[in-house]
Amino acid sequence: MGGNWKMNTDLAAGVELAEDALAALAAGGLEQSVDVAVFPPFPYLQSVGRALGHSNVLLGGQDCSAEASGAFTGQVSAAMLCDLGARSVIIGHSERRHGLGEDDDLLREKLAIALESGLVAVLCVGETLSQRDDGRAEAVVAAQLRGCFGTLTAEAAMRVVVAYEPVWAIGTGRTASPDDAQAMHASIRGVLGDLYDSAFAARTRVIYGGSVNAKNARAIFDRPDVDGGLIGGASLKADDFVSICRAAAEAWSAT
Ligand code: PEP
Hints:
The protein is an alpha/beta fold. The chain has one domain (2-253): TIM Barrel. The protein has helices spanning 11-27, 45-52, 78-83, 94-97, 104-116, 129-133, 137-149, 154-157, 178-195, 198-203, 217-221, 238-253; strands spanning 2-4, 37-39, 58-61, 88-91, 120-125, 160-164, 206-209, 229-231. α1 (11-27) runs parallel beside α2 (45-52). The two termini are 18 Å apart. The site of phosphoenolpyruvate has 14 residues, from β8.
């Protein structure tokens, strides 16, 4: 379960959110049953990392540069994230693909350098509403996967978590139906099976993101190919985020 804080919180609120989430996860006995990562804004990584201490909650960056180092004003390298104790990074969030024009060629480079640096990469894919309305959702997502995985070896690609995030569902309050999410997740596994093999496809985590909240989480996580969630707005309240984690734990223990 990933909490993508985007460009929210200030330093004190970010630290408090991490502390509250940690306490609620521990109180709910969820620390061992759900793998959790939080993705604070870059400037707060170190302080939030300190708040997380030696807990099981991973610290992650919301992006990294495709470059290792050098004259790239404003960018943050994968190595810098590691230096601050981050163990994960989001690559290709729709707010970067569509908001900042990042394409699959750039994202493939970011993914490669993130994995080389030892980070777990959460690779976001997803179609726009018009692509879905045109019946092209699965083809668009398949092309994004092929474009981003490129020629990555299976060994390197093992540290990729795929996040299916339909663009029209992010921050809109509109979620994919559990059936549509399941269909896309099965399709994603099919593409991973073609790129690598069926064992790789079966063990890769494919998580859903797009307006997940404490109320709708369980129905989505009940679907067999949904392995977790990337949570934006609802990750900014510790209780909501931990309720979503609990919904996931309950869905998996019921299967
Ligand atoms: C996200 O930012 O990845 C996301 C899914 O946001 P929200 O949950 O707010 O739709």
